[in-house]
């Protein structure tokens, strides 16, 4: 995950198939997956049913700081929510923005989506912070 090595203690007595499968599932995806035509199929077929999209301009000077905070929040929800970055500058992501009824003037924004029932919520942000992302996710989970 994101060039960070994680190890599972195989010497432990409780290392069974279920634990190994869970470890692999939790660590097979990046903390944040960029949404584009290439990754779209993998995102939609993910075993995680909750998707949190950060819809933002990757060309913004604030983008690197936003991503640092977004990744930090993603660590807290690993294995529960799939964190996705949707670049508002990609023409292919215009459909995503319209699905969540967002205009470029409302970005950056967080959009959370539950795939089985298509329940969703959107939060426009002045600034991306770990606390705001966590609060938004926790509120939706409740």
TrEMBL record:
One GO CC annotation: endoplasmic reticulum
Pfam families: Thioredoxin_6 (PF13848)
GO terms under biological process: protein folding; response to endoplasmic reticulum stress
Taxonomy, superkingdom: Eukaryota
InterPro entries assigned: Thioredoxin-like_sf
Gene3D superfamilies given in the database record: Glutaredoxin
SUPFAM superfamilies linked: Thioredoxin-like
Protein family membership: Belongs to the protein disulfide isomerase family.
Protein name: ERP27 protein
Organism ancestry: Eukaryota, Metazoa, Chordata, Craniata, Vertebrata
Gene: Erp27
């Amino acid at each position: 995950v994101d060039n960070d090595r994680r190890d599972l203690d195989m010497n432990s007595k409780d290392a069974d198939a279920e634990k190994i499968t869970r470890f692999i599932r939790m660590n097979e995806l990046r903390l944040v997956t960029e949404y584009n035509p290439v990754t779209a199929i993998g995102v939609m077929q993910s075993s995680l049913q909750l998707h949190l999209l950060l819809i933002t301009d990757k060309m913004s000077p604030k983008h690197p700081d936003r991503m640092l905070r977004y990744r930090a929040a993603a660590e807290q929800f690993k294995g529960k929510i799939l964190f996705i970055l949707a670049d508002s500058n990609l023409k292919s992501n215009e459909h995503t923005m319209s699905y969540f009824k967002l205009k470029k003037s409302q970005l950056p924004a967080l959009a959370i989506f539950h795939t089985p029932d298509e329940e969703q919520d959107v939060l426009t942000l002045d600034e991306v912070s770990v606390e705001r992302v966590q609060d938004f996710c926790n509120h939706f989970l409740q």
